[in-house]
Amino acid sequence: MSNIAIIPARGGSKRIPRKNIRPFLGKPILAYVIDAALQSGLFSEVMVSTDDEEIARIARTYGASVPFMRQAETANDFATTADVLREVLNQYAQKGSAYDYACCLYPTAPFITPTLLQRAFSILTDKQFDTVYPIQRFGFPIQRAVLLNDEKVQWFQPEHALTRSQDLEPAYHDAGQFYLFNTKTFEQTLRLITDHSGGIIVPEMEAHDIDTEEDWQVAEFKFKLRLMQDV
User: Fold this and answer.
1) Whole-number pLDDT of residue 229
2) Burial of residue 77 (number of CB atoms within 10 Å: 0-12, 13-18, 19+)
3) CA angle at residue 135 from 130 to 136, to 5 degrees?
4) Per-residue H/E/C for the chain
5) Which of 9-13, 42-46, 92-96, 191-195 has the lowest mean pLDDT?
6) Is residue 80 included in any domain, yes or no?
7) Average pLDDT in the 203-231 region?
8) Any idea what the CATH number is for the domain that residue 11 is in?
9) Mind listing the pLDDT tens digit for each residue in 121-163?
10) What b/e string do you get for 109-131 counting C-beta neighbours within 10 Å, with b at 16 or more?
């Protein structure tokens, strides 16, 4: 069995400039993800897909490979993650390298751990899912969500207006960290999430999606707390 870790890290981040290599508590945020993939022992290849020479240099410094630079078509604002993954897998195939499983790891997900990757891979292979990815529980029941229209509030699901929170089924969302997937199925569907995908629950303090400066600060705060708990 041969597996590859693919970390898509283009240079054109808009909301947080140079986001993928910005220092996160002392080292480039990308380095945490590379380290987790390497330490997991799951992958024969840990590579970074980028269009940026500085990102490529930093990726190599921390142990990842950058065997080729990303094409312009997959480095623009409209390219999807699936487009990037397909390009990478095709490039390796042309060199005679094929993989049974792959993992797309987002470069700004420093909470990923080797243990989490190993647990997710066990679920993927044991259950024979197409994909497995981390999910988090919503902090408040989504059945009690409201709409706001011209300052008027309306229930999304009025039938649950009086339902006790503890009686409502928990709901989860994508934690935005990684997708472990069967490459054969992906190449057939070009979809990371299918009707046969699995999830692995991660606690609120072990993931944080980073899109804004405030997100960055919260993520660093969470990470510091985790480090203190590990001491």
Assistant:
1) 81
2) exposed
3) 170
4) CCEEEEEECCCCCCCCCCHHHCEECCEEHHHHHHHHHHHHCCCCEEEEECCCHHHHHHHHHCCCECCCCCCHHHCCCCCCHHHHHHHHHHHHHHCCCCCCEEEEECCCCCCCCHHHHHHHHHHHHHHCCCEEEEEEECCCCHHHCEEEECCEEEECCHHHCCCCHHHCCCCEEECCCEEEEEHHHHHHHCCCCCCCEEEEECCHHHCCCCCCHHHHHHHHHHHHHHHHHHC
5) 9-13
6) yes
7) 92
8) 3.90.550.10
9) 999 999 999 999 999 999 999 999 999 999 999 999 999 999 9
10) bbbbbeebbeebbeebeeeebbb
User: Is position 65 within any domain?
Assistant: yes
User: What pTM was estimated for this model as a whole?
Assistant: 0.95
Q: For 66-106, how does the pLDDT look when each residue is reduced to its tens digit (9 = 90+)?
A: 999 999 888 888 899 999 999 999 999 999 999 999 999 99
Residue at 141 is within a domain: no
The β-bridge partners of 105 are 178
Residue at token pair 């066990």? 122
Residue with tokens 């022992």: 41
Structural domains of the chain, count: 1
Asked if the structure places residue 116 within a domain, the reply is yes
Sequence-ordered list of residues with C-beta below 8 angstroms from that of 137, at least 6 positions apart, any chain: 170, 171, 172, 201, 204
Give Cβ neighbours of residue 53 (< 8 Å, ≥ 6 apart).
Answer: none
- Looking at residue 77, its pLDDT comes to 84
Residue-range definition of the domain harbouring residue 7? 3-136+171-230
